[in-house]
Amino acid sequence: MVQVIEHEHQKEIIFNELAAYHKNPQYLAYRKRWDEAFKERDYGSFPVNLDVSVTNHCNISCQMCTRTIARQDMDLWDSGKFFDPKLEYLDFELYKKVINEGAEKNLGAVHLTGHDGEPTMHPRLPDMIEYAKGLGIPDVYTHSNATLLHKKKLGERILQAQPHRIVFSVDSPVKETYEKIRVGADYDRVVGNIRNFVERKRELGLIFPLVKVQMVVMKDNESEVTRFKQLFVDDIGVDAVGYSEYLDYQELNDKREHRIDAAIQGGMTDDYVCDYPYRRLRLDQSGLVYACLVGMAHKLGDARTTSLEQMWKGEYMQFLRNSHMRFGASGTGGCEDCGRQFRREQELISEDDLICSSGE
Ligand SMILES: C[S@@+](CC[C@H](N)C(=O)[O-])C[C@H]1O[C@@H](n2cnc3c(N)ncnc32)[C@H](O)[C@@H]1O
Ligand code: SF4
């Protein structure tokens, strides 16, 4: 069975019986809330999705990642503009406190990731998955570079915890390209880790997690899209592949200049209203909560002392929603440089090449 799920800027193609899970009433109710939250501007009393950055440590340096870019320029790194220079792991007790609140307030999804970090470096990632699943959150998912699955039986522990989905960021089916993009990672090790993960899942007879392998499409790898699907779907047997848009920060700044020129000349008819303030919050490894997944703007407060509901319904979030409605992203302080507003202008990839989401 193949199911196609359309997201705002992406499509997701799922290749097997897991598509049936997406017909589960609890899952459908959460997806309905996700759609309506933005369409109807109905943000409710709690976000639908919580993005949890469990760490900002990483073991590799991908060429396109903001983390790598910031590390190459210590002034940028220290400025804290894109990235928190203090490297940390999220405290497990604080995580539990926040997830407990979410479970009481109908939270739909917990995304365990790194805000520019590698979540599998957190020693309690499997416990975090298990905890959120144990409280009945309908969509518990994680993102990983798959470099560490062979260590300390991590792959096995993740399989036992059974997140609903896991996304492996791989970027290329070719060793040379892969190692040029994902600097410090070993192609053979990563492909072997994913192969073992999928085989072991099959051996255990597990339905979850849905395994998706994803590439950020850039000049270096754009010719490898078909081979990517052949290797990971046809040969290894993952459940889905994803192709996501490359955000080139310099190019986006140039586009922003053009956009501002167009606005001054009256050539712009619409502006980008962001969906995040209606759908999701980010809990960082530091315990601080942000209204946005990108960068360090829009800090709302500290999860140790303030409930997420208070933050979600608070004055700052109202200001952000109102400002986006009236002035769009380019007229909202802290959002002017955001690449998401330019995404609609970009041609991602042809319809024939299976396009998947980046985890939304
Ligand atoms: C920042 S990583 C964090 C999780 C984990 N370390 C990983 O690599 O999957 C989250 C996702 O962002 C993607 N990413 C990194 N830099 C990007 C860029 N410039 N444009 C688009 N996606 C990017 C990564 O490939 C990954 O899939
Ligand atoms: S593995 Fe993830 S966090 Fe680490 S450098 Fe690559 S994209 Fe960034």
Quick rundown:
By secondary structure, this protein is of the alpha/beta class.
Tag the structure with descriptive keywords.
11-stranded mixed sheet; binds S-adenosylmethionine; alpha/beta; binds iron/sulfur cluster; 360 residues; disordered C terminus
**How many E-type strands?**
13
Helix content: 25-40%
SS summary, helix count: 13
Q: What's the average pLDDT? A: 85
- Small molecules bound in the structure, each named once: S-adenosylmethionine, iron/sulfur cluster
* Biggest sheet overview: 11 strands, mixed
First CA to last CA: what distance? 21 Å
Inertia-based shape: globular
What is the H/E string?
EEHEEHHHEHEHEHEHEHEHHEEEHH
- Arrangement of strands in the largest sheet: 1-2-10-9-7-6-5-3-11-12-13
Relative strand content: 15-25%
The stretches of 5 or more residues where confidence is low (pLDDT under 50) are 7-11, 344-360
| Spatial extent as radius of gyration | 20 Å
Decide which structural class fits the backbone. Answer: alpha/beta
Describe the structure.
The protein is an alpha/beta fold. Helices cover 37% and strands 16% of the residues. It has helices at 25-39, 66-71, 74-79, 92-104, 125-134, 154-161, 175-181, 187-204, 225-236, 249-264, 276-279, 308-313, 315-327, and strands at residues 3-6, 11-14, 49-53, 61-62, 109-113, 139-144, 165-169, 182-183, 210-217, 240-245, 280-283, 288-290, 299-302. The protein has an eleven-stranded mixed beta sheet. Strand 9, helix 9 and strand 10 form a beta-alpha-beta unit. It is globular. It starts with a strand and ends in a 33-residue tail after the last helix. Residues 7-11 and 344-360 have low confidence and may be disordered. S-adenosylmethionine binds next to strand 6 and strand 9.
